[in-house]
Specification:
- This is GNAT family N-acetyltransferase.
- GO terms for molecular function: acyltransferase activity, transferring groups other than amino-acyl groups.
- One of its GO terms (biological process) is mitotic sister chromatid cohesion.
- Pfam families: Acetyltransf_1.
- One of its GO terms (cellular component) is NatA complex.
- Helices cover 21% and strands 27% of the residues.
- The chain is an alpha+beta fold and 166 residues long.
- It has one domain: Gcn5-related N-acetyltransferase (GNAT) (Aminopeptidase, 3-Layer(aba) Sandwich), CATH 3.40.630.30.
- The strands form 2 sheets. Strands 1-2-3-4 form a 4-stranded antiparallel sheet, with helices on both faces.
- β6 and β7 form a beta hairpin.
- The longest helix has 15 residues.
- It is globular and about 35 Å long.
Length: 166
Amino acid sequence: MTLNNYEIREIQASELPCLEELVYEAIFNPDPSNPYPHETIYEPNVIIYWDKWGSGKMDRCLVALEGDKVIGAVWCRLLNGNPKGYGYVNDGSPELTIALYPEYRGQGIGTMLLRKLVQQATLDGFKGLSISVTKGNPALKLYAREGFSIVDDNEYDFILYKSLQS
């Protein structure tokens, strides 16, 4: 399939429930034979990524569609409260989440989503974007290619940041 088969646009209210499922897809599991319980998405440090979407002034979300089916999304949200997000860097930079259903990975859709959100965040005047990426996640290559740099190295993950100001 070519990228021409997909549409990227802002999420619509009727599609907000898909964030609940996509946040689960965003959690990288180095051992797919032992999946995380689905209830993980309701833990306090995870639910902040998708619950009450649209309530934050820096909430932005783009979806990728194949026909009328949401197949992935990229979103950012300022997570500087209590708890802070896993990828917190500073109070002016929202944290990024990106997810595609497995059968749509590796086709350039994630790159397309990421570039469009970076473009939107830049136009909106955001300082930068951060993301927490589990060590061993193949998506690390995507973020490096798109200008994200490692700013912190924890036991299990890297915190990446891309400045959006010149």
